[in-house]
Amino acid sequence: MTSERVAVESAKGVNGLEKIILRETRGSSAEVYLYGGHVTSWKNEHGEELLFVSSKALFKPPKAIRGGIPLCFPQFSNLGPLEQHGFARNKLWSIDTDPPAFPTNSSSKAHIDLILKPSEEDMKIWPHSYEFRLRVALGPGGDLMLTSRIRNTNSDGKPFTFTFAYHTYFSVSDISEVRVEGLETHDYLDNLQNRERFTEQGDAITFEGEVDKIYLSTPTKIAILDHEKKRTFVLRKDGLPDAVVWNPWDKKAKAMADFGDDEYKHMLCVEAAAIEKPITLKPVANLILRESSRVAEDPLLWSLYVQVS
Ligand code: BG6
């Protein structure tokens, strides 16, 4: 009997929503819902789930899926006129059958390319034309990589500006045993104190209560150490200077309908983001002409790379 399994497979997920399953030969896997372009599962080669998804997550449009990796675009949080965290996380994405080549050669077979473009209805809410391409890839070591390529396709020559986050929910054994390294001594805006600016102390971050902070100009590498599980997540980000750290703790957990009362103990969001300095994209001068050579001319990649050991 051969145990050769396909690297990329389409399947029906919760409530019949379409999902893509990625499998790497050594046994790791990931799942991506077309609804939201949303990664909902990432498992290591032993089949252990590394992302947190709430047992109460709804998987019902237009509510975003609670857990996994929601995409916040084109607005983070309530920092603008749009709905909380923008609309990308509650739109139906499509499979991008002919994605432009990547500047770097990604050898992984286990990857999927998705695309989001606005409908006419969408343009009434955010009057811009864009192509948002997302690649989700599993590396040979079971590492997970998300790459976003966003282009302004406005025909009126107008630039647009957005904020962005990969809102990653990590699964942890016990939040009080978790430490985050790489953000110490950095400035942050405290969402719980009117986004006032503070400087983090010199020690690694630990958790004893609700946390909702936007760390600014952070290093490209951040580590999440889970002592009980003896597991370390190493997050590397590119093009995303900020990092949000969020845990709702008990009171807010109870107030969220799609989140279990005690689930805050088993999750931590560390989100690679561009918030303090929004990104402005000019339109592509001549989209048709550039089609064949656009990779070299398209240096804007926002990527998240997570390894676990
Ligand atoms: C975090 C924000 O990124 O997302 C928090 O910093 C927010 O303020 C949290 O509560 C969850 O947001 P939502 O819209 O998914 O409930």
UniProtKB/TrEMBL annotation:
CDD domains, per database record: D-hex-6-P-epi_like
Isomerase in keyword set: yes
Record's keyword annotation contains Isomerase: yes
Catalytic activity line of the entry: alpha-D-glucose 6-phosphate = beta-D-glucose 6-phosphate
Enzyme Commission identifier(s): 5.1.3.15
Coiled coil (UniProt feature): none
Keywords, in A-Z order: Isomerase
Enzyme kind, highest EC tier: isomerase
Pfam families according to UniProt: Aldose_epim
Protein family membership: Belongs to the glucose-6-phosphate 1-epimerase family.
Protein name: glucose-6-phosphate 1-epimerase
Source organism of this protein record: Hibiscus sabdariffa (roselle)
